[in-house]
Amino acid sequence: MDSPNALHSLDPSLHDFAPSTFGTIEDLKQLQPNSDGWSAAMVCCSEFGFQPDQNSIFDIGELYTVQNFGNVILPWGEDKVVTEISHVLQEKQLKDLIVFGHVGCKTVEHFLWEDRDIEWLQHGDKLRDFMSLHYGDVSAENQLSIAAQENILLQLKKEMLSLHEHGVEARLHGWLSIGLGNRIMRYDVQSGQFV
Question: pTM for the complete prediction?
């Protein structure tokens, strides 16, 4: 039996991100805070309890952080077209967006297998459909690891479209935490895997 923190490979043919869309760790290390003190924006899962600006390459207060269940990027405003993150990136002139998920996310598990009685779980419909279509033959245990990774990529893809539509340029970063040691892996656009 696989460890619940085992990382399973993704099908790299499922995403067609342009290499120039993604930034590197070196890009992040070279960032200078804006007038509000922020260097980048991050969306991460509130269930995880991770304090990103205390456990990463950033100093405390350098990240504009949105935490919610399942690191979902939500629509902002009444028209539900622009996301909160698109708005912040544009208004605060931030150029980097990190979506940070974790293996073992209970919200992702609920996205996959729970009824949609709770409104929040409807945000996982796209992930559920994607997993059913592309990973339906994978065991339930392995689906959880894959779904944690794919959820990050689906959120990035959705946000990339919103940013492009509104003329906002930003570098994307996908981060994934594995296990109790908080090992952080990043999405490598060349291999199509978290490394």
Answer: 0.89
